[in-house]
Write a structure and sequence with these properties.
about 180 residues
Length: about 180
């Protein structure tokens, strides 16, 4: 049952709806009070479900906003992601308005990592597999992790400059504004 949360698109309707709602207000003011109220409701609902199904509520339940990291018991895999979607959408909205740690998120290094992020996402698993294959290991130590990180960043940089930028150059030609 919990595998369906990760693989079926129906599991992400709440994220799409939250993203759509926030996109309507890119240049307008969102009533932040309602987002906090909705977030508190979702967290409260998660805690209530946890209490009624497990018959207890302890401090460890509070550490994950009512949704333990595993999110398996008490249907946390359903409600937990909605709470996190709301919180992260609010953070993205505040970042767009330059109200959420602008000195951190507006530096050139993070900007460049944002540009190569698709490559980081796309190549990280194959790079890990290749590094482990060539080192003949299944144990990922700190050294292997560092090698995988450097290799993934390098492959992503090469991909961005030699493949992605060329494809992106067609965007304005094929779809003029």
């Amino acid at each position: 049952m919990t595998l369906a949360v990760y693989v079926l698109p129906f599991s992400y309707f709440d994220a799409f709806a939250i993203g759509g709602y926030f996109s309507l207000f890119v240049n307008k003011e969102i009533r932040i009070r309602w987002i906090f109220i909705l977030s508190a409701f979702v967290v409260g609902l998660g805690l209530a479900i946890n209490y009624f199904i497990q018959g207890k509520l302890d401090l460890r339940d509070l550490s994950g906003l009512g949704y333990l990291p595993v999110m398996d018991e008490a249907y946390k895999y359903i409600w937990g992601y909605t709470a996190f979607n709301l919180i992260f959408a609010l953070i993205l909205y505040k970042m767009k308005k330059r109200e959420f740690f602008p000195s951190i998120f507006e530096n050139n290094i993070l900007d460049y990592f944002g540009k190569i992020s698709y490559g980081l996402y796309l190549y990280h698993f194959p790079v890990i597999a290749l590094v482990c294959y060539f080192l003949n290991t299944t144990v990922i130590s700190i050294h292997v992790s560092a090698m995988c990180l450097v290799a993934t960043v390098a492959v992503s940089m090469i991909s961005y400059h030699f493949i992605e930028l060329r494809i992106l150059s067609f965007k304005d030609k094929l779809f003029p504004r």
